[in-house]
Amino acid sequence: LLDDSGPAVVKNITLDRAVRIELTCKLDDKYSSLKVIQVTWKKGNETIGHINKTENSWSIHKLGSYNCTVKGEKEFSVVFHLQGKLLPKIDVKDKPVITYEGDIAVLVCKSLNSTPISWTWYMTNGSEQVAINDSLLLDKYVIDKVFPNVTQLKILKLTSKDDGVYWCEAAFELGKSKGKMKLKVLSLMVPLKPFLAIVAEVVVLVAVIFLFEIYSKRREKCA
C-alpha cells in the first residue's frame, strides 16, 4: 500500500518452500483520483516490466528483491525483500579420506533435518567442478542413495588421478547446499617405506659388524 507519509515502504517476506508470489503496488484509497504517469519495477538496478494493471494496482509474478516506484503528481515507492529460510547444512567428514592405489574409496554426505529433492556429485578438475555420471562410468563410480537424506559415492580402482576434492550437492525447493571432501590416494610404496628404512638400517649395521670382525681377525694375525 503506497503512501507519501514517509520514506519508501519496506516489506520483508520469508518463504519456507518454493511458491508463486504476486507482488502488488497499490495506492492508498485517498489517492484514487491521482493521475499516474509512470510505474517502474526494478530488481537491483535492472528495470523489468509488470504484467498486470487494475485501476491503481500493479502486479508482478517473480521471486527476488524488487522496488516498485509510482510517479505522477507525487512519487511513491515500496521495496519487497523475498528471502527463504536457511538451507539445511550438509554433514561431511572433516578430515581427508585416505586410501591406497587399487583400493575403493567411499565418500558419504548427509542432509541434516531435511530430505533433498535430488543429489549430485562433483569432482574438481582444475578450477572447475565436473558432475560425476555413474551411468556412463560403471566401472569407476557407483552412487548409492542409502537413505533419502544420505548419499554415498564409491570410487573404484583408485589411481593417483583420483586424488583431489569432491563435492556433494543437495537440491531443495529454495536452493542448493554443498558439502566438500578431500580424497588422498597414496602409493602402495608409502606403507612400505618405514619397513624398507628399518631393513636398510639393519643391512648397514650387519655390514659394519662384518667389516669390524674381518678387521679384528687381520690384526690378530699380524700380532
TrEMBL record:
Transmembrane spans: 195-215
Domain Ig-like: start-end pairs: 7-79, 88-187
One Pfam family recorded for the sequence: Ig_3
Keyword Electron transport: no
PROSITE patterns xrefs: IG_LIKE
Alphabetized UniProt keyword annotations: Membrane, Transmembrane, Transmembrane helix
Source taxonomy: Eukaryota, Metazoa, Chordata, Craniata, Vertebrata
InterPro entries: Ig-like_dom (IPR007110), Ig-like_dom_sf (IPR036179), Ig-like_fold (IPR013783), Ig_sub (IPR003599)
The protein, known as: EMB protein
